[in-house]
């Protein structure tokens, strides 16, 4: 283990196939998953919730689509399903997308019959209890991780195409458990008519809310966070077989008790590595920041977890 004082990063290395580099560093260079403006907005608000319009999207088309999904669940004898993740153009999450996913969740819960539906509220509760930012429910980045931990058999994600002639195509995919992974199985589509207000919401990014107010990074008189115990994550079997290397990036709030909370994936890596990193982050213990009076305070930090597969020829 080597501690580098120049930029206060902690780097852990181990020479073996499928090792992991941790950078619990403080490098505010993030491309936010939710929108490019997210980091700036959070820094200005100190973690306060942003005012975004997520009022219900009422549509008979969504009810019909939910009925088709319910029929597929019954046909495949699926007993439990998670509703998680909605994307618009360029993989961004918009206010309209959030409203559509909320409505789809409600419609599936009403029409699922004997199937257990972990809808938006249930998933938000699960994420909150596990110290992950609750608004990660609107991203499919942790869909497999969430579904596995809830012990569900499948999950549903949605994609909203760019509006055209006051309509947008909603595509919903069902992913079903297959061994230790989830395989995209079927896709159901419908066309949604949009009002002028809904067209405006389709152009507005959704700003996720964090539940814990925090001190701004590098605030004058505040100490930096330090790692006490930061165990490395396991390399997912899916990523190992595919030979995937790379870095997954997070924002997280270090609470006054030194635990991480409001864990938000900002640059996902995929192949099960983001979830593996989250499992590790939940075990971390850090020395929290202190204010000018020496009192422990919450502070948001960026975290990078880099996965590298080594081959025998590399050493």
Number of strands: 15
- Mean pLDDT across the residues is 81
Shape: globular
Distance between the termini: 19 Å
Succession of helices and strands: EEEHHEHEHHEEEHEHEEHEEEE
Unreliable spans: 1-45, 47-51
Strand order of the largest sheet: 5-4-6-7-8
Strand content: 25-35%
CATH superfamily of the largest domain, please?
TonB
What is the tally of helical segments?
Answer: 8
Find the CATH topology of the largest domain: TolA/TonB C-terminal domain
- What structural category do the secondary elements indicate? alpha+beta
Provide the CATH top-level class of the largest domain. Alpha Beta
Query: What fraction, in percent, of the residue positions are helical?
Result: 25-40%
Q: Assign the CATH architecture of the largest domain.
A: 2-Layer Sandwich
Which secondary structure elements does this structure contain, and how are they paired or packed?
Blueprint: E1 2-4, E2 9-11, E3 19-23, H1 38-45, H2 60-75, E4 80-87, H3 95-111, E5 116-118, H4 120-129, H5 143-149, E6 154-160, E7 167-178, E8 181-193, H6 196-201, E9 226-229, H7 237-242, E10 246-254, E11 260-267, H8 273-281, E12 285-287, E13 289-290, E14 296-297, E15 299-308
Parallel strand pairs: 4-5, 4-6
Antiparallel strand pairs: 1-2, 3-15, 6-7, 7-8, 9-12, 10-11, 10-15, 13-14
Helix pairs in contact: 2-3
